[in-house]
User: Fold these one by one.
Assistant:
Number 1:
Amino acid sequence: MKFSRTLAAVALTAAAPLTACSPIYVFGPHPDGDLLTLARQAEADAGTLDGDAAGMREFHARQLFDEITRLCGTDSAGLPPSSCDVERGPGETTGAKDDVAAAVALTDALVTQSGKLPDESVPLVVAQAVDLTASLDAPESDDWDFPVPEEPIADESVAETAAELIKEEYAVQFGLDLASAYADDNLQARIDNLRPLHDMRIDAMRDAFPELPPRAPGYEVDGGGPTNPGEAAAFVDNIEATLVDRWRTAASDAFTEDAPAEWRTLVIHLAAHAQRAANTA
């Protein structure tokens, strides 16, 4: 069917009162292009990776496609408008060669696209980057290669955040000392494994922010310290989990605030390291 000039003129005339509106609102919502790119990359990665990494990236793809639908809105039947229909799958995207490449690419894409993603979707994508990085195998040596910039990070606001984070790392170290007094052999072995991992993050933070405060002689413990082996084990679980939550929040906050790219990359790796340590040490 030909589209006549008369019909075109009528359409343009009818649309005239809406000239202040973007085409998205005139013709319906459209999928967010940056989220769609990330979703297709996750789907492609799921096809080239193996085992748990493939399963995680498939889960990430579902989350991202669902987020696209959520942003578009749905009707009473739970379906998005036709303008927002998305064919799920990798499209023409090439999957990562291994889980390390997938994690690096996701973090790089997140840092590069910062400011382009919908604000409300940022925590989801940051969480995916942290989880994927945390799932990587530990290096054979204890030399974790954190992406610490060559020059110290000079941003004052970020330095304040870093100061609060290192205080929380110190507080957990103090808590491990308290728990050690009541630890059985298994818990003591875990504490001995956790201590150098905290030191690694603290050293990385000090390299990036040389003016961070030193460890204080003592720290307050919410609810008091443990008094027996059972309480000590639960206490360690709690302080480590709380620290992981704090690191994950800091990573998400770095992408909703005007933080430098160097900090955004570093904080994702530090959050992932804390999460892996709490879950495996």
Note: Residues 156-280 form a domain with the Ferritin fold (CATH 1.20.1260.10).
Number 2:
Amino acid sequence: MMQLITSIIIQAAETAVWQILTDPQVTSTCMPGLVEWEILEPARRFRIVVAWGESGNNGGGLRIPAIIEWTELIPPTQLCINIRLFLGNNTLDIAGTAQLQEIENGQTRLEISSSFDAPTPVMAQMVRNALAKILKPFFHCLRNQAEQLSL
């Protein structure tokens, strides 16, 4: 079982961060390499396709489809999510939690944790590297969106 945990501080109230985090239109604009997305079930299930590779941001590269499901929402503090990645003939399930905590001066701490079981060590390392490259700009964009909303 591989686990990733990261935390960021956002200069915005917890409710503003929650609003951005649970808005599929905003989150879709923040996803690096996103080439397709659709709502399968409003406020619950989404299908995305992300281009990954040398020209991923231009829609080229390897296309990776995924189903995203929000499994538990506790406004405005916790969002649990399952992501099923389709990697050729394999699937990879990622369970994640976004935990929000209001801290001093109207700031919010957003802690993101995720875990997954990869079928091979090589795939585990590939997914870990890919998630690191995707999540950093994704959460940076969400932070900017929430901070602009709070102005």
Note: The mean pLDDT is 91.
